[in-house]
Amino acid sequence: MKTQYHVPLIVGALFLGAFTQLTAQEPAPAPAAPQGSDTVQGYAPPSQAAPAAPAPAPSGAAAAARAVPPPQTVAQALGFIDIIPVRSPDRIQRQLDIAKTNLREADANVAAATEAKTRTKGMIEVKKQEISTIDARIKLADKSKQETDKITLEAEKKVNERQKAFLERRGALHATEVDEAKAAKKLAEASTKALELEQQLAQRRASRSQGPTADPTTVLKQDEVIRELERKTLEAQQQQAQAQKDLAARDEDIVKRRLDLYQAQAAATGSK
After folding, report:
1. Residue ranges in the chain whose pLDDT is less than 70
2. Phi and psi at residue 178, in whole multiples of 5°?
3. Which of 115, 128, 240, 265 has its CA 20 to 30 A from that of 144?
4. What are the E-state strand segments in the chain?
């Protein structure tokens, strides 16, 4: 009867062992990620992750906003300007034509003033001889006790002396006119040179290589030529300004000489 009591215990032990074996074979559940953690659930290794979708191409406005402006040069940063303002070729050519016309006129004026000066100088020499002759006659009349002839000759001498003074002032005016014409010629020459240099500078500026395809070596050489032309043009313009200043002084001197001549002419005609 003892044996019958042990059978249920053996059967229960067998069932309990089988259940324990099945429980050990089941996989343990993955631990849950704590709240607030940066761990991403469902992460797959690179070899198994799905490819990312390509980003859409930026629009024109977005591309312009993201574009980085090109670096500024020293000239751009400091606000450099064209020392010689750019002028149209037509305007330069018109002024060049005027300067060449002034040069021809100045040559003609130099010749005319020189001729007038030489002619007046000859008239002054003649007048000096006339006065010298009158002086000799006055001495002879004084020696001969011819008082009437002496008085007449002395009056005639005064007239000739006033005429001589007029001629001398006229000669001084012609000499000043020669100087003024030479100054005008110098100004015309300086203006022609300055305008011709400016014309070459404008042509060089217009033909300068530009754009991203321009050869840097060629651009560097062209810029060197342009800078040299700018310097030469500025020097020529400085000479032009000085010549203009000299001409203005000659013009002022001519007005003064003409006023002196006016007074001498009035005296020579006896109206003063």
Report:
1. 1-81, 270-272
2. -65, -45
3. 128
4. none
Query: Is 0.85 surpassed by the pTM of this model?
Result: no
Q: State the residue for tokens 């059967």.
A: 11
Please tell me whether residue 35 adopts helix, strand or coil conformation: coil
User: Could you please report the per-residue DSSP string of the chain?
Assistant: -HHHHHHHHHHHHHHHHHHHHHHHHSPPPPPPPPTT--PPTT---TTTSPPPPPPPPPPHHHHHHHPPPPPPPHHHHHT---SS----HHHHHHHHHHHHHHHHHHHHHHHHHHHHHHHHHHHHHHHHHHHHHHHHHHHHHHHTT-HHHHHHHHHHHHHHHHHHHHHHHHHHHHHHHHHHHHHHHHHHHHHHHHHHHHHHHHHHHHT---STTS-HHHHHHHHHHHHHHHHHHHHHHHHHHHHHHHHHHHHHHHHHHHHHHHHHHHHHTT--
Residue 24 tokens, joined: 């050990």
Residue 145, pLDDT score? 87
Q: Using CA atoms, how far apart are residues 130 and 206, in angstroms rounded to an integer?
A: 69
